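Work through this:
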Amino acid sequence: MVSVKEIISFCAVAFFIGTAKAAGGNSTTDVSCEDKLYDSFCEYKQLVLTQEREKCLEARDILNEAVSDCVAKDPVRRMVQSVHYVRLFAPNCPTIELPQDGCGQLPTCLQMLFDRSGQRIRCCSKFKADRCFARAEKGCAYAAGVRDLFINQALPEVCKGEQSVRYRETVIPSSCPAPQY
């Protein structure tokens, strides 16, 4: 018999990694997760910067909605976007785990793959990050999907014998409109 916790965990997987791992998957939509993340960033940022618990939870819901019912067409871009979301969330909402309760180690694993700017992918940290994601799988049901997307799909695409790679493409808006109160 399947427990409620397992059902919730399975649904969370769909929210965080999208309904298909890469383009050509069997998703019923062709909306790219990367486009949804780009379009959601300013609203997410505005909520996170309030540093209020309820607003942070709302921002987390926006992130999870942005990666639901979509296709990860560019795993590298998706990984870079994710680190920007994580780096904004972590210092402003420190008591809330991202992307859901029980998965607090995932942001740490992801950040291992980037320098402080979030633009240089540290290919040399792949094995360390992979071990981190493997440990996270023990307490977070959908860490395996995130691990596959980042470690097995994104990194091999960009890290072709390099120690690090600078990612130059714009993945989040460079400026957001002022908050409307």
